[in-house]
Amino acid sequence: MMLLLAAGTAAGILVATTLIGPKKEFADKMEPFECGEHPIVSPKLRFSVKFYLVAIFFVIFDIEAVFLYPWAVIFKDLGIFGFVEMMIFIIILAIGLIYVWRRGALEWQ
Amino acid sequence: MFYIIGGVAVLSALIMVTNKKPVSAAMSLIVVMFCLAGIYVILDAHLIAALQIIVYAGAIMVLFLFVIMLLNIQEKEGRVAKHKIFFQFTWILATGYVFINMVKLIGAGDLPARMEGNIDGFGTTRVVAEILFTDFLLPFEIASILLLAAIVGAVILAKAKIE
Amino acid sequence: MEILIPTIKLATIYPEIIITTFAILVLLLQVFPTVIGKDYLGYTSLAGVILAAIITGQGGASGEGGEAIYSFSNMWVVDNYSRFFKLIFLLGTGLTILISIKYTKDEGINNGEYYSLLLFATAGMMLMAGGTDLIVIFLGLELMSISLYVLAGYVRKRLISNESALKYFLLGSFATGFLLYGIALLYGATGTTSLKGISGFISEASFGSPILIMGMLLLLIGFGFKIAAVPFHMWTPDVYEGAPSPITAFMSAGPKAAAFAAFLRVFIEALPSLQGIWVDIIWVLAALTMTIGNVIALVQDNVKRMLAYSSIAHAGYVLVAFVSTDKLGVASILYYMLAYTFMNIGAFAIVIIIGGKGEEKINLKDYTGLAYRYPLTAAAMCLFLLSLTGIPPTAGFMGKLYIFSAAIKSGYVGLATIAVLNSVISVYYYMKIILAMYMKEPESSVQHSPLVFTPAMIIALGLAVYGVLRMGIFPSAYISMAQQSYLSF
Amino acid sequence: MVPLNHYLILSAVLFSIGAVGVFTRRNALIIYMCIELMLNAVNLTFIAFSKFLNNMDGHIFTFMVMTVAAAEAAVGLAIIISMFRNKETVNVDEINLMKG
């Protein structure tokens, strides 16, 4: 009940301001704010691909970490079998890391 | 509670499909992901809910936003040529119709016998882990090879210069 | 609480382990400057393929008894069926590697990742063929598809290669979405994902609940996309034309066979009691695929595009055998797939040779008068085309004969007649090429650069020609092997 | 307790929205987002069934579907990047050199 109440009031205020508030959209006002002067360069600057490459590696190795979570929970009971199993997993992805590193995809300059 | 979250999920999915700007489409997809995580919590699938947020909302959506930023897409959806609109309109109707009765069919279906008893700690990580690392060993190792292939593929395609 | 550790029979997955280790080896060789020069990567991956073939051939863990051995908590099986398919995949990959050694040098994409991705795709296919659990089949399918998405777009500077990768990716993952939804519904209806469990549940439970039928339909759609059956074939011509030629050859042979292997196993092992429904659907699919595949191929002048449509038509022929779900039907599919791999990759090898650098010469006019300048190549191409049509002395004829007899035996005479009609149509567009090669004089206007034959290419062509003739003239050895490998469960 | 059917209906609706989105949109990125939405709908079906069938296989499958979706996202977006590098557009309409 409390949740509803809180959400209700917040939404109410939001709706009220958008409805009541004065809205004048002329060109200058809509431009990204740059201390008064007219912006020279469009804010959406293009950045190079290596940022994207790092994002991919983050996604892949994040998945690897996600696989480690449940493994950590039952590490004790699994004994040697579980250990070997996870080592194979880690080694395969370490090979991926070595490949990426030697391939030069991680350079930053 | 489920109905609220379900409603929000459907709403934001609709926003995503009909949205003009890719960035706001990605934002509404993130909202869908969070609603789904909420539903998983209702279904006692705690590990999967946490995972959904970490993996999907966290990593994949970041990737999407990266690409949107990278490609600096401004162009709006151009006006579609005349005949194209008609073609697309019928297409939407067709697939919409097919799926609606699919929904009815699924909704009405009688369900398999529900196995009694509730495994203690139904959705907790421990239970998931036990099955994952013992019975499902083969898929686990295949997943690692899959990730390796994905990394190699992504590097070759995305890296600026390949000697 | 103690956790029971399942017994693992590692021997059952030796071939897959070998292929993966070789893929990783090629990857690391590419990255670390070692004694093996860059251009020997192709040969190292070839060695891996041959080694894996030997291990699969000699039966691995299942011994000669041929009975199925289950392992990994019955998610994996090594029976004659999966071993036969694995040999087909390894043959396809080996031929593709042989073809692409020269091709990758010309196109400047001669780095190790090309071969390691090829091996990853093969590993994915082998997993699909051997898996008896929907999870393993799904993961194998994904591993194969992801490697193929990248391989299709490998020549980055050529725009059509990019475009084909994008189309293949979008439609491929769309199909995976459907396939997954089908698996989810099957899981819901029967409570398990293992094929045996599903068939057990269906046989004693009441006839399919709507969820089960819906799940089966979605599964059908997902697999339909993968084998490029007609209603879902739109992606095939563009992707086959855009992708580099060795990859197109690989795509038309390997993954199609893998999709059929999984399709067959799922539908025959897991859903026998629903046969009434899916047999008719496949009947319609087969008829449609054959006719449309052949008819559109008639109007093509780009040879690669024509071969793409002919591979759709051949998927139709295999669906004909699929309709007769008995032992003979399965054996005929196995036999036809082997014959198809030989002749298709052979035909593509010739397309690569004539295509030359940058693959611009792949229209019909480039083949005019080939017989006068290079009689041997023209003869080989003629043999492959005859085999694709199904003319007596070749493997294609035996394959089609086998399939049609299986279809007729199980009472689908109508479909068999359609199939024969289609073969007649296909004669026309294959003959177009042969006529161009033999009858027309080479016009002086089109400058013909000398064709370059590398040793690897000659071995590939020799192997393909040998296979086509061997299976055509004395097919008994292969037929008995196929017969023995029907689904023995 | 919310009956199983409602979950199934919700996931079927999400799946259909995704499928319709794939056909109607022309921006390759948004098409892939719709496919991602479809995969999420499938995950929801798995978890719903796993809850009502009371066995844990559904969770494992969802685990695997997530890793597959992540790997596919990485490769797919790399393809879109290499596509964009050659030709400054992401619209599927303009990418049809090979009609025929």
Give a verbal description of the structure.
- The complex is a heterotetramer of chains A (109), B (163), C (489) and D (100).
- Helix content of chain A is 71%, strand content 0%.
- By secondary structure, chain A is mostly helical.
- In chain A, α3 (49-73) packs antiparallel against α4 (75-103).
- The termini of chain B are far apart.
- Chain C is mainly α.
- Chain C has one domain (10-484).
- Helix content of chain C is 73%, strand content 1%.
- Chain C has 19 helices and two strands.
- Chain C has a two-stranded antiparallel sheet with strand order 1-2.
- The longest helix of chain C has 32 residues, at 159-190.
- Chain C starts with 13 loop residues before the first helix and ends in a 5-residue tail after the last helix.
- The model of chain C is unreliable at 60-66 (pLDDT under 50).
- Chain D has one domain: Helix Hairpins, CATH 1.10.287.3510.
- Chain D has helices at residues 4-24, 28-53, 57-86.
- At the B-D interface, α1, α2, α3, α4 and α5 of B face α1, α2 and α3 of D.
- Count of folded domains of chain C: 1
* Biggest sheet descriptor of chain C: 2 strands, antiparallel
Structural class of chain C: mainly alpha
Distance between the termini of chain A: 55 Å
Radius of gyration computed on alpha carbons of chain C: 22 Å
What is the number of E strands of chain A? 0
Strand order of the largest sheet of chain C: 1-2
Number of H/I helices of chain C: 19
